[in-house]
Specification:
Helix content is 37%, strand content 16%. The chain is α/β, with parallel strands linked by helices. The chain folds into 2 domains: 27-259 and 375-439, NAD(P)-binding Rossmann-like Domain (Rossmann fold); 263-371, 2-Layer Sandwich (Dihydrodipicolinate Reductase, domain 2), CATH 3.30.360.10. A 6-stranded parallel beta sheet has the order 3-2-1-4-5-6, sandwiched between helices. The chain has a 4-stranded mixed beta sheet with strand order 8-7-9-10. The structure holds nicotinamide-adenine-dinucleotide.
């Protein structure tokens, strides 16, 4: 049973609630591998909101409502009134990083938030210090840092991360935990034999198998401890049979991958629109300049390839060229990312879109998005933390492994093998809200609407 009051009035069509949802009681511990631009903007932002210094703009969990019943019923509770979510005051934080900077100096170096804001919450940010990271230069070739764990093999490193998790659970007094990867993009890897089962993976950990990247070690540790894991980068990490097996076995929900921010967010807003109107697409050229550490990491071809794969899949899935060969069969889709230090975190993304209409007449659309990547990513981190925690407390969701209803937040949403991902932002939002309705036994909204004309 939920503790929060559901302010919405019951409707005639209400079904039984789908399973039980435990209350969001006590503290929720957020553990973040990678205390860089995204992580610090998220944590500093939560604290600024808690102190009444700013507003959590861009966060669905903080602003979103869900319509229940008919359009004429006038029932639209806030998401936090429909399902029990942890409150911002319940959140406590820790992280891991290869650099020794606490959250104040990491946020200052990231240069996303103004110093005047960071200074108002300085002691709080300074109290969040990085734990030693599991890291190898072989997987992120542009980085090296001193704050790194040592162990005789990868299994020992995994044990150390598990110990960090248990220690934080105790020292913070958190009732529940979430791990969310905000670390750098690792080199491109493909699933191999070591990833096919828990047994194979554990053997490979002991043998220091090179197909096991550091992010997978964090994921293995979290899921082994029954802690849900979200993946904000395009790395494979939890997108592997071994992780699905662990996730289901230990009822630790997983989701990923790669936060859907700037350019891809716009793509998944615009492309469904072109397709809805059956306008053709000849080409979509996307280029970016950015100068933060993420940009530097992506300057390495290995890390860029991981990101490129994640960004390219989007249009193919939305446009379905096999169903519409005349409209989308010849689409030329190109994505470039260029490291350009003067820009810092304030990325500039250009899109040139070649569309064609009636009788094949060509038109062009140009977009110049002066975007702030981490400002768009931070509310995603908040929502994922709160929703994954909801999933863990829901008897209906926690045993399912992949949380496809959270596709809304990802460039490359995870699905079970054989199922294509849903990329259209509006379908993703409908899926998310229908999941919340379903959990509470509310009627799903189909938008049929014939009943208004009876
Ligand atoms: N900023 C966005 O909008 C956005 C959008 C989608 C995805 N992402 C992804 O999120 C991640 C974080 O982005 P960012 O802008 O904060 O990057 P960042 O470079 O500022 O921060 C990443 C941090 O991770 C640390 N790190 C790297 N490997 C680690 C490891 N094994 N263990 C612990 N720490 C490790 C780095 O030292 C760094 O401090 C990147 O993978 C990025 O591609 C970001």
């Amino acid at each position: 049973m939920a503790t929060r009051q559901n302010n919405a009035k019951p409707t005639a069509g209400k079904k039984a609630q789908a399973g039980e949802i435990r209350p969001a009681k006590g503290k929720l511990g957020v553990m973040i591998p990678g205390m860089g631009a995204v992580a610090t903007t998220f944590v500093a932002g939560v604290e600024a909101v808690r102190r009444g210094l700013a507003q959590p703009i861009g966060s669905l969990t903080q602003w979103g409502t869900v319509r229940l019943g008919k359009r004429t019923d006038g029932r639209s509770p806030k998401i936090g009134e429909l399902v029990p979510l942890a409150g911002l005051n319940d959140l406590v934080f820790t992280g891991w990083d290869i650099f020794e900077d606490d959250m104040y100096s990491a946020a200052s170096k990231a240069g996303v938030l103004e110093k005047s804001l960071l200074d108002q919450i300085k002691p709080f940010l300074q109290s969040v210090k990085p734990r030693k990271a599991v890291f190898s230069h072989d997987y992120v070739r542009k980085l090296d840092g001193p704050n790194v764990k040592k162990g005789k093999n990868k299994m020992e490193l995994a044990e150390q991360v598990r110990e960090d998790i248990r220690e934080f659970r105790k020292s913070s007094g958190a009732e529940r935990l979430i791990v969310i990867w905000c670390g750098s993009t690792e080199i491109f890897l493909q699933p191999g034999s070591a990833h096919q089962s828990v047994q194979a993976f554990e053997k490979a950990l002991v043998k220091n198998d090179e197909s096991i990247a550091p992010s997978m070690i964090y994921a293995y540790a979290a899921l082994s401890e029954g802690v849900p894991f979200a993946n904000g980068a395009p790395n494979l990490t939890v997108d592997l049979p071994v992780m699905l097996e662990l996730s289901r076995r230990n009822e630790a929900p997983i989701c990923g991958k790669d936060f859907k921010t700037g350019q891809t967010l716009l793509k998944t807003i615009l492309a469904p629109g072109f397709k809805a109107r059956m306008l053709g697409l000849g080409g979509w050229f996307s280029t970016n300049i950015l100068g933060n550490r993420d940009g530097e990491v992506l300057d390495d071809p290995g890390s860029f390839k991981t990101k490129e794969e994640s960004k390219l899949g989007v249009l193919e899935h939305i446009l379905q060229p096999k169903l519409y060969p005349e409209l989308y069969g010849q689409l030329y889709h190109k994505v470039r990312i260029n490291y350009y230090p003067p820009r810092g975190d304030n990325k500039e993304g250009w899109d040139n879109i070649d569309i064609f209409g009636w009788l094949g007449y060509p038109m062009q659309i140009k977009i110049d998005f002066l975007c702030r990547d981490s400002i768009l990513a931070a509310p995603i981190v908040l929502d994922l933390v709160l929703f994954l925690d909801l999933a863990k407390r829901s008897s209906e969701l926690r045993c399912r492994g992949i949380q496809e209803w959270l596709s809304f937040y990802f460039k490359s949403p995870m699905t079970v093998p054989g199922l294509y991902p849903e990329h259209d932002l509006f379908i993703q939002l409908m899926k998310l809200k229908n999941t919340l309705r379903y959990l509470r036994g509310e009627e799903l909204i189909t938008h049929l609407g014939l009943e208004y004309y009876d």
